[in-house]
Amino acid sequence: MKKAATARTRTATKAGSASPAKMIDGRIKELGDWRGEMLTRIRDLIKQADPDVVEEWKWRGVPVWEHDGIICTGETYKAVVKMTFAKGAALDDPSGLFNSSLDGNVRRAIDFHEGAKINEKALKALIRAAVELNGSKKRSAKRQPT
Known about the structure:
Blueprint: H1 20-31, H2 34-49, E1 54-58, E2 62-66, E3 70-76, E4 81-85, E5 108-112, H3 120-143
Antiparallel strand pairs: 1-2, 2-3, 3-4, 4-5
């Protein structure tokens, strides 16, 4: 009997379709340029920051990384790879990584342009902070009386 899939390998896709990880791999290959390389680097940093992250494929083709809720998305556009943090407005950003979607009440984003250097230490700290925030929201929800 096959063991149940771990959280890291669960899929949000329909039966018979590719896993989210395979779909993200496909997007990276399909891009075939600096955007694919940047998305690969961001993906690697997310996995380094949170080895228990779950990859999803949502909204007709957006890579999503979750842990007790959405951490961030990785959207690709013609001139930018956008890393949007679902609860970014609630995160401290002492290194000033957020450079997009700054007026919103909930989300914040980082736009990476071709040739951009990534402050890996600061980005991993931001990812860990997002995971911690998701975990704290989950813990407080469990403590609420029913």
